[in-house]
Amino acid sequence: MSALWSVGAGLLLLLLWVRHRGLEAVLVHHRWVFVCFFLLPLSILFDIYYQLRAWAVWRLHSAPRQHAQRVRHIQEQVREWKKEGSKRYMCTGRPGWLTVSLRVGKYKKTHKNIMINLMDVLEVDSERQVVRVEPLVSMGQLTAHLNPMGWTIPVVPELDDLTVGGLIMGTGIESSSHIYGLFQHTCVAYELVLADGSLVRCSPTENSDLFYAVPWSCGTLGFLVAAEIKMIPAKKYVKIHYKPVRGLQKICEKFTEESKKKENSFVEGIMYSLDEAVIMTGVLTDEAEQSEINRIGNYYKPWFFKHVEKYLKADRTGVEYIPSRHYYHRHTRSIFWELQDIIPFGNNPVFRYLFGWMVPPKISLLKLTQGEAIRKLYEQHHVVQDMLVPMKSLEKSIQTFHADLNVYPIWLCPFILPNNPGMVHPKGDESELYVDIGAYGEPKSKQFEARASMRQMEKFVRSVHGFQMLYADCYMTREEFWDMFDGSLYHKLREQMNCKDAFPEVYDKICKAARH
């Protein structure tokens, strides 16, 4: 009873302090208070609900039976929109704050919302080595479903809450992408409800133009209702090698060298300054030295990027074995390194042991509760960007990131980009090795000004025939956007499938210059 009184008194004092300082001041300058006391417990409740739901669906085997019925309901909504005169664009009815993208989509308020409740794993076909899923299945949900069955998918993008639909309509990448490409390149078929209410399946051999046009289209060609993704056999561990490298030229040379090796199952780099990095390579294995196993995903363990930094500070190489699922979600607990700006003491051993089991807060809840003051603060003083550039331009790109942003750590992730039709492909006629340069944090460059600096970055990326991930803030004009991306197939299909009255153009949906 005395403990309850203590907790109650503590909460009362906290509320009095919030009232004295003002809620907005606390949310802006002491956001960790709100996150620790409210968002972390709420995030746990969210996780419990979705885990119980997934378990119930698995036990009752209801997903395959109900999928067709749910798709018909989507078709009925689209046909109803047509009967109403097609007066407004359509979009999914999923609230904007539930998406992992940092953008707040105002179009949800003006467009016709089509409710799409599709969040189940439908079928695991071991013979074809394909898993069929609905678009709102998350990466955490999918790996938890497949791993006990001895399977995984070739590219498991970081962060548990990323969904299949978002990774197809946008894009996704992981440290295995130097072998398998982007997330879209591991998909073998899509099923969509089109603007006329019809249901269409597309693959490289069936409605192939639509298959190649869907990735990066951000839901502006139709509503994704199912996807088929390749599977590969899962193994118990990832044997990971840590290699500190100093000097920008040596970093780029070593990273490029390792990225070209197909015997590496995984390759990634974390840059801690312009001339300091740790390059990691990994291979899948079922055998491990017990003394070298590191279950990095356990709640009390140090954040992964801080663990990696120890090898740099000690100036030593290292080898350890990480359980596969822990490896796939190694950056989840710290949201790469974004959580250190929200909970500055989050990696402290005391916090990890007492409260680490509640981390991370849901990105969707962070968005929902950020308020206009925090949104503007983040927009002007915070960067979350992934730029995809040819590997041959890596050194020049890092120098540009340093000059325009000066944000560290920086994430480096290689990927092979096939010469397929669609919005994103190499300049030449053959596949080319690219690298994702991820900058997440507060820019230290004295000249940084959000709009001007990002436009400068976008100009550079276009000049080397690179691409900007579309989940982030984009400041390009329409002409600049279609100079970066190949819109020929996309525009052709929008014309053929009568999408112009049904969905906004992708530029109007995602670019700051077009949104209102």
Architecture overview:
There is one protein chain. With 516 residues, this protein is of the alpha+beta class. The chain has 2 domains: 71-233 and 488-514, 2-Layer Sandwich (Uridine Diphospho-n-acetylenolpyruvylglucosamine Reductase, domain 3), CATH 3.30.465.10; 237-481, Vanillyl-alcohol Oxidase, Chain A, domain 3. The chain has helices at residues 2-21, 23-29, 31-60, 63-83, 139-146, 164-169, 177-180, 208-213, 248-259, 304-314, 324-328, 339-342, 349-355, 363-368, 371-381, 394-404, 450-463, 478-484, 488-496, 506-510, and strands at residues 90-92, 112-114, 121-125, 130-133, 151-152, 187-193, 199-202, 223-230, 232-233, 237-246, 266-273, 276-285, 318-323, 383-390, 410-417, 432-441, 467-468. Strand 6 (187-193) and strand 7 form a beta hairpin. Helix 2 crosses helix 3 (31-60) and helix 16 runs antiparallel to helix 17. The N and C termini lie far apart (54 Å).
Give the topology, please.
Elements: H1 2-21, H2 23-29, H3 31-60, H4 63-83, E1 90-92, E2 112-114, E3 121-125, E4 130-133, H5 139-146, E5 151-152, H6 164-169, H7 177-180, E6 187-193, E7 199-202, H8 208-213, E8 223-230, E9 232-233, E10 237-246, H9 248-259, E11 266-273, E12 276-285, H10 304-314, E13 318-323, H11 324-328, H12 339-342, H13 349-355, H14 363-368, H15 371-381, E14 383-390, H16 394-404, E15 410-417, E16 432-441, H17 450-463, E17 467-468, H18 478-484, H19 488-496, H20 506-510
Parallel strand pairs: 1-2
Antiparallel strand pairs: 3-4, 4-8, 5-9, 6-7, 6-8, 10-12, 10-13, 11-12, 11-15, 14-16, 14-17, 15-16
Helix pairs in contact: 2-3, 16-17
